[in-house]
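Operator note (shift B, R.M.): manual run for ABC transporter ATP-binding protein requested after the automated queue skipped it. Running by hand, logging everything below so the morning shift can see what happened. Input copied straight from the record, untouched. If output looks odd, do not overwrite the archive copy; leave it for review.
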Amino acid sequence: MSFLKVQNIQHTYFTKDSRTTALSDISLTVEEGEFVSILGPSGCGKTTLLSIISSLIKPTQGTVLLENKPVSTANNDIGYMLQQDYLFPWKTIEENILLGLKLSKQLTEKNKSAALNLLQQMGLSDVEKQLPKQLSGGMRQRVALVRTLATEPKLLMLDEPFSALDYQTKLKLEDLVSQTLDEFGKTAILVTHDIGEAIAMSDRVYLLSSRPGRIHKTFEMPEELKTLSPFNSRNHEAYPSLFQTIWKELESLEQGNG
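Run finished. Output pasted below as returned.
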């Protein structure tokens, strides 16, 4: 039994005058503790798929099961990390990271202590009483990750969480997020435009075709890359040829040949 099972997903957006099929016949599985990425041309429905998996959108057709139960029943089991950190500017860092626990009525002294401890593990000591505007973009994204992990979700949805950061910060954060998810044994799905990021962070990469989005190809990452940190996997000899292979496939899709 797979941890996450996406079965025959189809999704169509209707307006008064038109219908647009965003996704067609998508089926995939993710095992517990795996990190998978979804790549594809712009407008291929990557974020729509993420929204369906997290039950923010009900698909036109198909089912999503988390631990063999409909994902719509998964209360607090799914955490989201987005391109924007969405920290409340008038709340302190401590108030921001405890917000999810408060809203889900899970705020106890033990959970509060664990969240503050995680903040320290992320290299963010002595920032609890500061406001978000006092932190850099990379620091705010680390705070957003702590807030997401504080509620102990079983599945993490990462929607281009590093794309607004400068390259050096992005590389450091990829390593930190990867290491943290490994330590906590978390399962994650990343939507990204960045082929290198997908290769460096993932166990498996799903490449979607142009609209309607279908699974065009699945790439299993070699074991020698899976065992390395994202930064080190970018420097491995297996990385360039894999990058070129996925690049060519993506390019053919964007030119309408896929």
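Quick read of the result: The domain at 1-74+188-258 is CATH 3.40.50.300 (Rossmann fold). The mean pLDDT is 88.
Leaving this for review. - R.M.
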